[in-house]
Amino acid sequence: MNKAAIIPDLEEGYKTLRIIFMGTPEFAVASLTKLLEAGCTIVGVVTAPDKAAGRGLQVQQCAVKQYALEQGLLILQPEKLKAPEFLEQLKALHADLQVVVAFRMLPELVWNMPQMGTINLHGSLLPDYRGAAPINWAIINGEKETGVTTFKLQHEIDTGNILLSEKISIGKDETAGELHDQMKEIGASLLLRTLQGLCKHELRESPQRGTAETEHPILKHAPKINTETCRINWNKPVQEVYNLIRGLSPHPGAFTRLQDRTLKIFHAHAVMGLSTAASPGDYETNRKTYLRYACRDGYIQITELQLEGKKKMQVEDFLRGFHFNN
Question: Exposure check for the chain: N or C terminus, fewer CB within 10 A?
Answer without folding.
Answer: C
